[in-house]
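Researcher: Going back to the complex we discussed earlier. I've cleaned up the inputs and rechecked each line, so this should be the final set. Can you rerun the prediction on the complete assembly and write out the structure?
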Amino acid sequence: MEAFLSNIDRVVDGFSWTVRLTLLSALFSFVLGILLTAMRVSPVPLLRAISTAYVEGVRNTPLTLVLLFCGLGLNSALGLSLSGTVAWDVFWWAVIGLSAYTACFVSESLRSGINTIPLGQVEAARSLGLTFTQNLRLIVIPQALRTVVGPLGSVLIALTKNTTVASVAGLGVQEASREMKLMFDQGIAPVLPTFVGFAIGFLILTLPTGYFFGWLSKRMAVVR
Amino acid sequence: MSAQSVLFDAPGPKARARNAVYTVGTLILFAIGLAILYLGFNRTLTERETGLFDPATWAVNPTGQWTAEKWEPFLRPDTWTDYVIPGLQNTLTAALTAAVLAIAFGLVFGIGRMSDHWWIRVPAGAVVEFFRGIPLLMLIFFTMALPIVAYQVFDIPTGTFQVTALVAVVTGLTLYNGSVLAEVFRAGVLAVPKGQSEAAQAIGMTKTQNMWLILIPQAITSMMPAIVAQLVVLLKDSALGYIVAFPELLRSFTLVATRESNVIPAAIICAIIYIVINLSLSRFAIWLERRNSRRGRPSTKPTAAGGAPVAVQAQPGPAAPDATAQEPAEGGATAAGPSGATAPDEGSDKDDEGPENRRD
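Model: Rerun complete. Updated structure for the full complex:
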């Protein structure tokens, strides 16, 4: 255990990348997820079709493939450099891939939330003369968000764990699991304490998130 | 489902015109996005000498990804027999093995978590929460490193046993998805109406019989869609085997991509294969859900429709409570008291089902 603790700065460094990946991807996937949901229920058939195709397609593709596509395909094809240093460049491509993937799950949760809103709410909004956008912005999305706080928490936890996939070849973000693998391979510290240490690190990230969202979903629940 | 038809009115002439504008706007944005992707993979987006609207820019570049040569490998049978089919076989082997093991794991720990003994309940809960809370990839890495652990902890020389990538992937998938399935089973068992296990206890079943004959079958039936959805996740996660060099579908496609340097065609075809498999599994889950909800109906629908026969049979109706009231009397005087209170309830329930069912 001492050998592991003497390398604690590497562990912390790994988890700092994990947290950064999680937070930025959560933010972008949330925005993209709301956009996809709005498209999914919009009056324009083409928008609905694009959103449905995107969600169904990306949701059923393995995350490893999505991230490989970002790392090997888009990165070189678009010739875009998102940042000066390689470490941050791959980081931003990983954020793009994770956001694109997670947005589908955000959108699916939100859509199920929309389905729980009583029809009277929407009908009342329409009879007041609210337009579709007003209806969505003022009536539907706020209520839907409150009902899906719990599922969104699960999506966030899944995202936290999914950031480990960003260590795949072609991206290779130095996040926690890659750091752990390197420490295994370099024989810096015994494997078992290293694994337990990193596992505890992830539990510290995921368990409180779960409890917090559980508490929040109870607090935010719409009384009907 | 309901939201779509209710969120907006049937479009009038003005709304139709507006929708047409939005459609055209979306089409233009969509076309620009596709064009950027097309040019990017055509290698004429940033590294071109000709102008943007020059036909030469838009022609299929022989060094880009869209040229026929890059797609041709997927028309050759040996690509499929040497790479894709073995990869698919490995993916399905890993996924199916892990699915069977995960269901067994889930049953053991899901039931363990509901045990009456704290020394079974608490460890089972801890195991489930632990494996659910840490990333699957870490489990796979750790399983791969088990020989080192054996050496460091138990002094077993390295090389005594080896962990193949398949074993590591299956172990990781089993532990993670098994823990999720344990929670699914537990939720399913807790959702079975309480009367079911009370009835089982009343006819003298043991706790084990109650669990395996009454609760688990009903829980599995009602949770089938969630179980299939989790199996889709499992199949998708088997692509993590790519990272530990397990020769599954994704890895065989990257091998083809490296050999033929056709990353984009390989990625597209690989994605299509995964999407087809997973979508058909998801559709299967939806079909199961519909079938379940249909199957739930016969027990309620006859009662709803049975309202009429009961009304018609108004005269035999009162006879039924008499019949049930006589049965406890035969059973014994002690049982007459408590069952007498519930007798009218049972009588009216059975009345709806008709006299044939009453004997069962």
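Model: Worth noting: Residues 298-360 of chain B have pLDDT under 50 and may be disordered.
Researcher: Good, that matches what I expected from the previous run.
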